[in-house]
Amino acid sequence: MINFTFKNNTRIIFGKDTEGQVGKEAAKYGKKVLLHYGGGSIKKYGLYDRVLKSLKDEGLEVMELGGVMPNPRLSLAREGIDICRREKIDSILAVGGGSAIDSAKTISLGVPYSGDVWDFYAGIATPEKVLPIGVVLTIPASGSESSSGAVITNEDGMYKKGFSSELMRPKFAILNPEISFTLPPYQTACGCADMMAHVMERYFTNVRYVELTDRLCEATLKTVINNALKVLEEPENYAARAEIMWAGTIAHNDLLDTGRIGDWASHDIEMEISAIYDLAHGAGLAIVFPAWMEYVYKNDINRFARFAVKVWDVEYDFNDVEKTVKEGIKRLRNFFSEIGLPITLKEAGIPYDRFEEMARKCRKWGPVGKFVELDVNDIIKILEMAK
Predict the structure, then answer these.
(1) pTM for this prediction
(2) I want to staple 271 with a disulfide (CB 3.0 to 4.6 A). Which of 91, 121, 160, 383 is the partner?
(3) Quick one: pLDDT at residue 39?
(4) By the 8 A CB rule, do 140 and 244 touch?
(5) pLDDT digits (tens, 9 = 90+) for 69-114
(6) What burial class does residue 40 get, using C-beta atoms within 10 Å of its C-beta: 0-12 exposed, 13-18 middle, 19+ buried?
(7) How deeply is 47 buried, as exposed, middle or buried, from its count of CB atoms within 10 A (0-12, 13-18, 19+)?
């Protein structure tokens, strides 16, 4: 286990009807709020009205910016920055999933900064302050509700890039599992794949003697696996929705990072796919992650065998450890398929003619992968394996 510092300041408010507390929480950070959200679903199911009432009951002045897309765009964040500066906004409230939250984080970065907000993502600026952010979570998936990171897509070149700073953690996050009852099955499944990928990125590490976080990772993965089919069959199963929503937060709030170094190559590769083809992030990860596993497992075959045994209940084959590993990867793929996700690029309708472009863009910002560092040719081979 390596040295670490753990700090997570996000106040989590979890449970039924908790969105009614949003006004009280937001009022702690000023009188003018930018309400940031995506499409019409929050209005269709009444969440928008409940949130707005709570904000106005506290005497808050609300400006709005909707229209956040999956794989959120830099142009909308820049529009939000302009609104916040012009209207002297005190804080931002993201109502939605990871896309709305990451867009809000990007806005919060840009408002106090004199340059272009993309400078942070390009690695040429470091934030000194941000606008406070609050969250009402609608889609358990990204874990952005209490993480320090965000991902945004720059339409100029279609670069999808992440950035992380402790300043970006939301001040509070309201998690009501009931809000996720109306999620379409595909969106639910994408969310489950996303949170599982967050755990697996951390699980496959070269750091030794991390038994506690190994077990926490395994438990989080098994919780998602055990409840995913339940919520797909029973969308209003509160207990199962609650397990998945909390697992999604735990998967990416940095607790599972402690004392270890994760990989993150699968995320980097997938972001190039979704930047170009606008594929849902979770669906892309369901394709890329098993292919990455098949490519790198010999780097630490025993860790992959443990994954198969502890997460997928594969019987350990003492005569053929490789057989154990391959069965674990097979069961991961089968699970993704069972919950309705594509497991190949072909199934997702992704053509094969831009692999080199994606690999080179993936490496543009520096090394890819900590468990195994990948060069351009490695990334192309993984994409070939994902066909």
Answers:
(1) 0.95
(2) 160
(3) 82
(4) yes
(5) 999 999 999 999 999 999 999 999 999 999 999 999 999 999 999 9
(6) exposed
(7) buried
Lookup: tokens for 328: 């674990």
Rounded-to-integer distance, Cα 26 and Cα 134, Å:
7
Q: What is the dihedral of CA 57, 178, 348, 102, to 10 degrees?
A: 30
Mean predicted lDDT score pLDDT of the chain: 97
157 phi/psi in degrees, rounded to 5: 100, -5
Cα distance between the two ends of the chain? 37
Q: Which residues of 85-105 are buried (b: 16+ CB within 10 A; e: fewer)?
A: eeeebbbbbbbbbbbbbbbbb
Do residues 352 and 345 lie in contact, with contact meaning Cβ atoms separated by under 8 Å? yes
d(CA 77, CA 65): 10
- Mapped onto helix, strand or coil, the DSSP state of residue 5 is coil
Task: Give residue 107's identity as a one-letter amino acid code.
Answer: I
Residues 352 and 382: their CA atoms lie apart, in Å, by 12
Kindly report the three-state secondary structure assignment for every residue of 264-294: CHHHHHHHHHHHHHCCCHHHHHHHHHHHHHH
Token reading at 172: 């509070």
* Opening angle at CA 178, ends 174 and 183, nearest 5: 105
Half-sphere exposure of 35 (CA within 13 A, CB side): 21
Q: 52: closest CA among 64, 40, 41?
A: 64
How far apart are the C-alpha atoms of 282 and 200, rounded to whole Å?
13
CA dihedral 8, 10, 11, 15 (to 10 degrees): -100
Report yes or no: 364 and 123 within 8 Å, Cβ to Cβ. no
**Domains located in the chain, CATH noted:** 11-178 (3.40.50.1970), 183-385 (1.20.1090.10)
Both tokens of 210, joined, read 């991390």
What DSSP state is assigned to residue 224? H
Which pLDDT score is estimated for 40? 81
Helix (H) or strand (E) holding 50: helix 47-57
pLDDT digits (tens, 9 = 90+) for 305-341: 999 999 999 999 999 999 999 999 999 999 999 999 9
Q: Computed over its alpha carbons, how large is the radius of gyration of the chain?
A: 20
Residue matched to tokens 């009931």: 178
Strand pairing partners for 172? 11, 134
CA distance 46 to 237: 20
